[in-house]
Amino acid sequence: MNHFRWHLLPPVTDEHPINISGSSPLISQLLFNRGLSQPSQVELFIAADKRLAANPWLLPDTHQAVGRIYQALLSGEKIAIYGDFDVDGITGTALLIKGLTILGGETIPYIPHRLKEGHGLNTTALNALQRQGISLVITVDCGITGLSAAKKAKQEGLDLIITDHHAPLDELPLAIAVVNPKRSDSAYPLSELAGVGVAFKLLDALYQSMGREELLDEMLDLVALGTVADMMPLLGENRYLVKEGLKLLNTAPRPGIREMAALTGLNPGSLRSESISWVLGPRLNAAGRLEHAISSYKLLLTDSPDEAKELAIWLEEKNAERQRLTTRTLTKAREQILAKGVTPLLIASDQDYPAGIIGLVAGKLANEFYRPSIVIRIGEQFSTASCRSIPEFNIISALSECRSFLSRFGGHSQAAGFTLPTKNLPRLAEQLSDLATTQLTGLELRPRLDIDAEVSLSALSGNTFKSIQKLAPFGQGNPLPTFLSHQVKVADCRLMGNNGAHLKLKLEQDNIVWDAVAFSMGNRLSEVHSVMNIVYNMELDQWRGQERLRLNILDLAPVDKTG
C-alpha cells in the first residue's frame, strides 16, 4: 500500500484578512486554502444560496430544446427520457419524468442495460422507442459522443434533445438541441454541472417559460443525489444545488430514501454529502451494476411505502452482493498485476470479470498502486473496459489518441470507459502503455495528501467541528478539512472490522483524548508506535441514532519520519 506525500498548504498571507466575518484563525486558514480571501466571497460561499444559480438560458441550445419540448407538450407527443445507468443518469431521468409529468407530458423512462447495451445511445433502443410511438427522446448524462446513433435517429425521423456533461468530440451529434456546458461555445459560468444538473437547468428554463418556477425546488433532492454521487466539484452553483437538495433529503425525504436510510443506520434529518457518497450512492448504483437500474429509478419515484421498503431491501441485498463480487474480482485482478509486475499503466483482463464491477475494481487498483488502471471484461468479439486514473495522467485524452482501435469511448480525465473489438486489445494496450510510460517515467508516483493546517488535538475541542460545518457541503473541490498533529500518544490500537481490515485507536495529547479509526489500514498495525504523527479529518460517527465525534485517520508515521 502506498503511503502519502504529505503536503502542508501555505499559511494565510499578510494580505489575507485573518479575521474574516469573525472567524477563528483556523477557519480563516480553511477559507484561504479554498481560494477565498474577500468577505463577499466568503459570505456567498457559506450562504450557498440562490445567488449562485446561473441563468439556464446561457446553456447552449436551451431555446431550441425548450421550444421542442413545449411543442411536444402541446401536441400530446410521447416523450422518452433516455438516461445512463449510474446515479447521475437515474436521478436525471427521474427528474425529467417527474418535471414533465407535472406539466401534463406523456413520458416513459429508458435506461439501457449495462451488460447488454453499455453506455450511451444505441440505435436498437432508439428504434424500439420509435416503434412504441415515441417521437421525441431527451437524453440525460449521455449522448454527446453518440454520433452514429444520432445520425440514424434523424434519418428515421426521431427527434433528439441531448443533455450531457461529458466532454464533446470535435463533432456534435445531429440533434434538435445539444445542451452541454462543456461545449466550446457555451456561455454558462459553470462547466462542471452533473448530468442531472444539466437536466435540471433545462427544466428550469422550461418552467420559467411557463411561469411554473415555484415547483422546481421540490426536485432538488434528486439533483443533490446525482451531483454528489458523480463526484462533481461542490463549488459555485453546485454548492447551492446540493445544499438545498440536502435540506429536502433531511426534511421531506422520498419514501425510498427514507427506507434506505433506515436500513443503513443513517440518522433521519442528519444526512450529509458524505451520506450520499458512502451509503446512498453505492446502493442506488448496485441495481445497474448487477441487474437493471430501473429498480433504483422506481425507488426514487414511488409514493408507496410498501414498494419503497421492498425496493430498499432489494437494493441492500444487491449492494452486499456487489461488495462480495468486488472483493473477489479485485483479488484476481491484483494477482494479475503483480504477476506481470507493476508498470506505469496497469491492465487486468478476464472474460469472467463482471461488467458492472470493473469500474470499482479499476478505482481500487488505481488507489492502491497509484497508477492509471484499466480493467477489461473480454468478450468473444467485443470487450468492454473501465479506466481510473491519477492526476498525472489524463485517461480520456489518452483514449482519444487511440480512438482508431475503439468502437466507442467516453468519460473524464480520471474516469472513462470504452468498447472495442477484442482483436484490437493487444495493440491498444501497447499504445496506451507507451503513452503512460512516456508521461509518467521520472515522476514520484505517490499520492499527495493536502493538509489544511497543523494543529494540536486540544485545538479541536469546543465549537471547532460546528464552525467547520459552516463550510459544508464537502466533496470534490471542497474537501473535508484535513489536519496534521505531531507527537500524538497512541494509548490504544487494535484491529476492527471484517478480518481486521481497520484500526481502532485511542489517541492522547495534552490530556485530551480522542477516539479514532483508520479505515483499510489493518495491515499497518506493525507500523503503529507509542507516539505518532497523524493526518486526519474530524467526523461525526452516526450509527443507529447515536452521534459521536472522532478522528478519521488518513495516514500516520513515526515521529522521526514524514509523509
Explain how this protein is built.
By secondary structure, this protein is of the alpha/beta class. The protein has four domains: 154 residues, OB fold (Dihydrolipoamide Acetyltransferase, E2P); 196 residues, inorganic pyrophosphatase (n-terminal core), CATH 3.90.1640; 71 residues, no CATH class; 99 residues, Roll (Diaminopimelate Epimerase, Chain A, domain 1), CATH 3.10.310.30. The protein has 17 helices and 18 strands. It has a five-stranded parallel sheet with strand order 3-2-4-5-6, sandwiched between helices. The longest helix has 36 residues. The radius of gyration is 24 Å and the shape is globular. It starts with a strand and ends in a 5-residue tail after the last strand. The mean pLDDT is 93.
Please summarize what this structure is.
The chain has 563 residues and is of the alpha/beta class.
